[in-house]
Specification:
The structure holds 2 protein chains of 2 kinds. By secondary structure, chain A is α/β, with parallel strands linked by helices. Chain A is built from 13 helices and 14 strands. Classes of the chains: A alpha/beta, B alpha/beta.
């Protein structure tokens, strides 16, 4: 889960070796140093670095910035090399865009790695580049995936606003930059993930706002957990908008399993007749509102030796139920989470706790084929689809397709 | 493909010899460095903007620089930096008539037109220009055809991947000089195929175009790799930002730095020097030629009497 994030500019001038003394840069470097220190201090299991590059892929975590692509002289003395014309070093017949060998990371990620090195971070990293034309949905999905990599993931997003803010800016002056950047800064200050995901990608591209995909990765990872933003730097000394920010997230509630008690039954009854939940589950009792039938069913499953039933709690509160039962020789798992608690990873964690306790394998599961959320939970937990079946679903008033899964 | 290969002599150990450079009716031997004086027909170029915007002032300036020893007069109508739009028609209005007047007054001087556009190049050549100086590296594919049509000379430059009048933004190169060579040699090859006389082709690394200060310093340091191809090399260093950033000086204080880069480039074998300050540059390249032994002292009596 995402525990902390930072935004830093992907400006090559962050590297001291490249710039000599310029009075405006130290303040920016200090802000980045503080933001990255905050990331490291959150004690993550993994820091994921995201930045823009010509291709979108994962890079070797040992990859480092090659300053020589910006400053050839930093590679070492070349003064006394004999001058010669060596056709082997280039091919004039096939002039092609210069691509760095794949051992060298793209500069945006290399700069992130440099900041982590400078902060003394020696833990695991994941370096992931995104492209300028990657869609918001793609970026958001990447953010969600990165957030789920480990229990404690910190995200370093190397991103800048428009490079067209002044007459002297690299991209010259484009009057649209100011309002565009203002919207971005507001969204980040106000923790508005939706606004970031709605940014106009084409406009961002025209304004040389190379941070657009990176902000959207953050937005996808943060979702509704975005707790706070501290903006440490927000200025354009060279006509490019540099923003340095530290982002915090809500702590995730603790999920647990315990025996169902008599005092739970009223709440469980209400949960399991919630119309939306019933619709999603599809294969429910004929009448979930029949209390007598519910009581009899609960009494049966609580006393059956082949059924392992638990109440699911979140910060001590009852939020659902989970159980395994045996049918036709197969052990099957089933769970129910109160709709008010959807979208917080509770089902995944309850399932993980159950699979830890119930060691029978294989274990099966079923879900309506259109119950995307439940299928995702099951697949993430290691269940594989083994087939489908068409059966009568009381909640749908007809037959629908059901997906069958198995975990070995 | 190298110039001397085309001219008939074979490269020696991977190196090619510099050959004769033909500009207009002139044939310049390799030992003769050429100074190209800049006359910008613009109100807003970066160095002393507006100096030669007025046509009479521009004519006066031409007289000055020829007197100071310029071999070539380079006439441009569009600044390199981003700014107010100058379309092809306006560019032609600023340059073609002036070039015609120049040609009329100075039948022998080499005239170059600083443009990336084929329309402006055509109008300039019709008016009497001998050389098309394209700093933006072949952005307009028809430029070489115009050069071929008018038997004009052509500069083949490397501008990274910049479109005309844009600034470099986080540009990086695994090997900047390899990129420069690949691009300029490709353009030279295309020019030959288009029918441009190989003895009228010049290559130019175009300092600062699509390159940061470090990149421009590197190509200056390794310029011998360009001259070793056998193609004549033009360098345009004058008062540029890579000089300014190396010394932390504004445009009007960059002459000594420019002359240092000029001397190094001359030592490495560059043949055309595009400059604002003609008199000083003339002295520098002539001194370097004397040091090289390409040119005898103008007057030596001391110790010989």
């Amino acid at each position: 889960m995402l525990i902390a994030a930072a935004i830093c500019p992907a400006a090559p001038l962050l590297a001291r070796e490249l710039t000599g003394t310029d009075p405006l840069i130290p303040e920016l470097r200090r802000a980045c140093r503080d933001a990255v220190a905050g990331l490291v201090a959150s004690v993550p299991d993994l820091i994921a670095v995201v930045g823009v590059a010509a291709e979108g892929r994962r890079w070797d975590e040992d990859g480092r910035l090659d300053l020589g692509v910006f400053a050839p002289a930093l590679r070492g003395p070349a003064l006394h090399e004999p001058a010669r014309h060596d056709p082997a070093r280039y091919d004039p017949a096939r002039y092609a865009p210069a691509l760095a060998p794949s051992s060298v990371v793209p500069p945006s990620l290399g700069l992130g790695g440099m900041l982590l090195d400078q902060a003394g971070y020696g833990g695991p990293r994941e370096l992931r580049s995104v492209t300028q034309d990657q869609t918001a949905a793609d970026c958001a999905a990447l953010g969600t995936r990165l957030a789920g990599r480990r229990d404690r993931v910190a995200l370093l997003v190397m991103a800048d606003g428009s490079a067209c803010r002044t007459l002297k800016a690299p991209g010259y002056l484009d009057a649209r930059s100011e309002p565009f950047d203002a919207d971005v800064v507001r969204a980040i200050r106000d923790r508005d993930a939706a606004a970031l995901l709605a940014l106009d990608a084409d406009l961002a591209h025209e304004l040389l706002a190379t941070g657009r995909p990176g902000w959207q990765v953050l937005a996808g990872a943060a979702r509704e957990y975005w707790a706070g933003t501290e903006v440490r730097y927000c200025d354009d000394p060279f006509g490019v908008l540099y923003m340095v920010a530290s982002v915090t997230f809500d702590a995730l509630p603790a999920v647990g399993l315990r025996l169902v008690e008599d005092s739970d039954l009223d709440a469980i009854f209400d949960q399991m007749r919630d119309p939306e939940g019933v619709w999603m589950a599809a294969f429910t009792p004929d009448d979930p509102s029949d209390r007598t039938a519910f009581d009899a069913h609960m009494a049966m499953i609580r006393s059956s030796p082949c059924i392992w039933l638990r109440a699911v709690t979140c910060d001590g509160r009852l939020v659902g139920t989970i159980a395994t039962y045996v049918t036709e020789g197969d052990t099957e798992v089933t769970y129910w989470v109160d709709r008010a608690w959807w979208g917080r990873g509770i089902a995944s964690r309850a399932l993980a706790l159950l699979l830890d306790k119930v060691t029978t394998r294989p274990v099966h599961a079923r879900a309506a084929s259109d119950n995307v959320a439940s299928l995702r939970v099951l697949r993430k937990s290691g269940f594989e689809v083994i087939g489908t079946e068409v059966s009568f679903a009381p909640a749908r008033g007809g037959t629908i397709e059901e997906t069958i899964l198995r975990k070995d | 493909m190298t110039a001397s290969h085309l001219a008939g002599s074979s490269p020696v150990g991977g190196e090619a010899r510099q050959g004769v450079l033909r500009l207009g009716e002139h044939s310049f031997p390799p030992e003769r460095p050429l100074v190209m004086g800049i006359v910008n027909r613009t109100p807003d170029s970066f160095y002393r903007p507006g100096l030669t915007w007025d046509e009479a002032a521009a004519m006066e300036r031409v007289a000055e620089i020829i007197d100071d020893g310029a071999d070539i007069v380079d006439v441009g109508g569009v600044p390199a930096a981003p700014g107010a739009e100058v379309d092809a028609a306006e560019e032609i209005r600023r340059t073609a008539g002036f070039i015609a007047a120049l040609r009329d007054r100075y039948p022998d001087v080499v005239i170059s037109v600083d443009t990336w556009r084929h329309e402006a190049a055509r109008a300039a050549c019709e008016a009497g220009a001998d050389l098309i100086n394209d700093s933006w590296g072949g952005h307009d594919e028809r430029l070489a055809d115009v050069a071929a049509e008018f038997s004009a000379a052509l500069v083949c430059a490397h501008a990274g991947r910049q479109s005309p009048r844009t600034r470099p933004f986080r540009v990086w190169y695994p090997d900047v000089l390899a990129d420069v060579l690949a691009r300029t040699l490709r353009l030279a090859d295309l020019a030959v195929r288009a029918g441009v006389d190989p003895a009228r082709i010049v290559i130019d690394p175009a300092h600062d175009f699509g390159k940061n200060t470090w990149h421009s310093l590197e190509i200056t340091r390794r310029l011998a790799e360009m001259t070793a191809t056998g193609w004549p090399v033009l360098v345009s260093l004058s008062n540029k930002d890579f000089v300014g950033e190396s010394l932390d000086l504004p445009p009007l204080e960059r002459l000594p730095g420019t002359l240092a880069a000029t001397a190094i480039s001359a030592w490495h074998g560059a043949r055309i020097f595009r400059v604002h300050q003609v008199r000083e540059s003339r002295q520098v390249v002539d001194m370097v030629a004397a040091i090289k032994g390409d040119r005898p002292p103008a007057r030596a009596v001391r110790g010989l009497a």
